[in-house]
Amino acid sequence: AQSVTQLDSQVPVFEEAPVELRCNYSSSVSVYLFWYVQYPNQGLQLLLKYLSGSTLVKGINGFEAEFNKSQTSFHLRKPSVHISDTAEYFCAVSRNTGTASKLTFGTGTRLQVTL
Amino acid sequence: NAGVMQNPRHLVRRRGQEARLRCSPMKGHSHVYWYRQLPEEGLKFMVYLQKENIIDESGMPKERFSAEFPKEGPSILRIQQVVRGDSAAYFCASSGQGPYEQYFGPGTRLTVT
After folding, report:
1. For chain B, which residues lie within 8 Å of any Cβ of chain A, measuring from their own Cβ?
2. By the CB < 8 Å criterion, does A94 face chain B?
3. Among A4, A16, A110, A13, which residue's Cα sits nearest to residue A62?
4. CA–CA min distance B107, chain A (Å)
5. Model confidence over B50-103: pLDDT tens digits?
């Protein structure tokens, strides 16, 4: 079984400041890793994914994440946030089996960007 | 290219009634997943289906909940005899063949009164 831990339930940050949202996972098998964003009363939108290859992955809206296998982490970063980045961010994993499988989500981190 | 469609977007049911939630996957996608999001919580996996087959139902409550994905038409999540604890947002996602990302619909917000 897999589990995902997002230690920070809320992260307040000023506009144009950098931000890091932390994600750690636990799994007995290899995993794929994802970050999704959810705006109020909407569905989830994929920000970025790690399937294999380079451990630094770049996504939409200027976000990037780094896969660290030894620390079982997949932290999300953005060098300069905007007010419009205010949303809920979810880290998720699925089993690396080469086939489709369910996602296991963390509890989410609410990013609050203020002026 | 239409995304994942869910209807209704909002559903109000009285305790004891049945709720039917519909999901049409993205064009070309044959894998459908249902997730539930309780207030202030993350998404919890419920069931994974392919056409006419349930692949993984490890997250489905044992009673009152069922899901199907028929050969023709949308996937249906059915909740019988709803209770207040069923109030949540239910999200459907779809994916193509292989370990690709899942695309989510806008969700159905179920309120049980």
Report:
1. 4, 31, 33, 35, 41-45, 48, 56, 58-59, 91, 93, 95, 97-107, 109
2. yes
3. A16
4. 6
5. 988 999 999 999 999 999 999 999 999 999 999 999 999 999 999 987 667 899
